[in-house]
Amino acid sequence: MLGKWVGMLILVAMLVPMAHGVTPSECKTEKNNLVNNCRPVIFGRDPSPVCCQNVRDAHIECVCPYLGPKAASVIRGIGVPRVVKLIEGCGRSVPRNYKCGSITTPP
């Protein structure tokens, strides 16, 4: 079950911009909001307006630390094209070849 929530975080991490000055407390709140408000996406539903707002407001440095190989397998299970379509449907672009949660994540 945790893998599914990590999958949602991957959804968001693929599109969120870098921001500076986010506190650990703010990151925890962002992560919890994403998990709670975007949960239906994992089960095949479209993102709600609240989920999309959370996606647009999320910071990469809050999301990427939760990502790793297990999370990547969850995204593949959802389907990368569907994930990209959902993210873009929330008003965010997905950077081409961007890797979050890996050594190649930009500073």
Describe the structure.
It is a single chain. The chain has 107 residues and is mainly alpha-helical. It has helices spanning 2-13, 24-42, 49-57, 60-63, 69-78, 80-89. The longest helix is centred in the N-terminal third of the chain and has 19 residues, at 24-42. InterPro entries: Bifun_inhib/LTP/seed_sf (IPR036312), Bifunc_inhib/LTP/seed_store (IPR016140). Residues 1-21 form the signal peptide.
Described by the principal axes of the CA atoms, the overall outline is: globular
Q: From N to C, what is the helix and strand string?
A: HHHHHH
Strand content: under 5%
Query: What is the mean predicted local confidence, pLDDT?
Result: 74
Structural class: mainly alpha
Radius of gyration: 12 Å
* Biggest beta-sheet profile: none
Q: How far do the termini sit from each other?
A: 30 Å
How many distinct beta strands?
0
Fraction in helix: 55-70%
